[in-house]
Amino acid sequence: MSQKLSIPEVNALGYEEFIDRFGGAVEHGRLVAAAAWSARPFLSASDLHFRFCEFLDQLSQAGKEAVLRMYPDLAGKLANSGGLTEESVREHKAAGLDSLSADEHRTLSELNEAYKTKFGFPFVICARENKKDAIIQGLKRRMENDVRTEAVTGVNEVKKICHLRLQDLAEDSTSKM
Ligand SMILES: NC(=O)N[C@H]1NC(=O)NC1=O
Asked: Atom 2 (ligand 1): residue with closest C-alpha?
């Protein structure tokens, strides 16, 4: 992972460097980072996160669904074929999704497919804040929601994932780690 930047260092980045560095804070989310850059100077790391959230909050239902469609299924095809982003690999490991039993794997795959059939976008949850059992329970519970509630709930999880990814990339203190 590259060295963390202080907020003054983040504020000094040109937009191309900023997008290169923060374009993955939201999965395949270079557009979100490109929008956040307009809000410079950032006052703090939480202000940086707030600007990403601000963009996500103003999206239409279709826009929110589009953001969710950029995320891989947890323990799905991309994970099996080694096609996950570096960030997502770390998050899968944190939740214990890299060591599922055959039964757990089947359960999660079936629930993910049922969820996508109902909503038209994948189930998204912050894997660094949930272990595998909580993820399976969450999937079952959230399956009962309606599509608008689920788009908002999914995007709230995107914000949590983004917050943790940004923490890995930038810090409030002016000195580098
Ligand atoms: N589907 C889904 O939730 N994917 C994600 N969650 C997370 O923490 N990292 C991801 O890639």
From this structure: 124
ipTM of the complex: 0.99
> What pLDDT is attached to residue 173?
67
Q: What is the pLDDT of residues 10-29, one digit of tens each?
A: 999 999 999 999 999 999 99
State in Å: Cα 174 to ligand 1 middle: 30
The pocket around ligand 1, CB under 6 angstroms, is made up of: 27, 71-74, 88, 91, 122-128, 161
Q: Nearest-CA neighbor of 122 among 58, 60, 79?
A: 79
Fold of 5-65+166-171: UraD-like (1.10.3330)
Q: Does 5-65+166-171 match 71-165 in CATH topology?
A: yes
Query: What's the length of the chain?
Result: 177
138, 107 Cβ separation under 8 angstroms: no
pTM equals: 0.95
Domain 71-165 classified CATH 1.10.3330.10?
Answer: yes
